[in-house]
Design brief:
alpha/beta, 2 domains, 4-stranded mixed sheet, 298 residues, 45% helix, Ribosomal Protein L15, Chain: K, domain 2
Amino acid sequence: MRWNVVELSENGLYAKLSRGFLCVMNGEKQLGKVIIDEMCCLLLTAEQAVLSKPLMVRLAECGIPIVICGSNYHPISVNLPYAAHHQPNRALDLQLSATEPLKKRLWQQVVKRKIENQASTLKQLHPDKTSVENQFSRLADKVRSGDPENIEAQAAKLYWKTIMSGGFTRNSGSQDTLNAALNYGYTVIRAACARAIVAAGLLPALGIYHSNQRNAFCLADDLMEPYRPLVDYEIFKADNTINELDKHTKQKLAKLLVLDIEVDGKNTIVNNAMQMSAFSYVSALKDKTPRLSLPKLE
């Protein structure tokens, strides 16, 4: 099971490969080690960190992303292997030949499920606000192919206004604790999603909806959308008592990858659900059928 998130957060640490383990060193002292086959990703949040080339090669061979984060835990870059699938060109051909009508129908599914999952999250956090839940239900029903009315943004505005009534503003560039915690959680989800996409033979840069030429992970940003509320719930369920993004909080966010979740009427863990989402996208492109396997929160 691949779910361990390894983070180098202190300056001066050195990570190397040793007999199938990622070993973290401080000078000659070993601080800890993790079986590489059980890793989901490696996060670099320290200002100074050193990785050995054999370690980087092994991580690439296993399809494990190396994520470099800025000071606010927002991902700056993600390192992934060129080929982690036995037929990468086949999936790439499908991506390049995908029609706009098909992609718009797929994006409709992503947005609708994201809004439904936001509604489920609000129901858990604020069970007394049934009127807001009904609003989300109506918004989800209004999402059309390609979301031309940008219902996603309308739902997001209402969502953040409801989830934090104390003046909180969601801003990925902010340095405050809650925004940094959200960035960290989303980074974990994004890295796991990117890994699933590469394992399915897909090119992360070719998205369904996102198409920023400077973003090499548009598809990961698309498919991770319905998973975002998992992070939100984990952070806000504790009555907003997160005062700092400490080791304990990071561990809880990393363990989101092994939580049970429903996909296509069956229960699985989040990490596996992401693989199902990625492979369902390949099937949708191949069969030219707008159907994705997406997580459903209760």
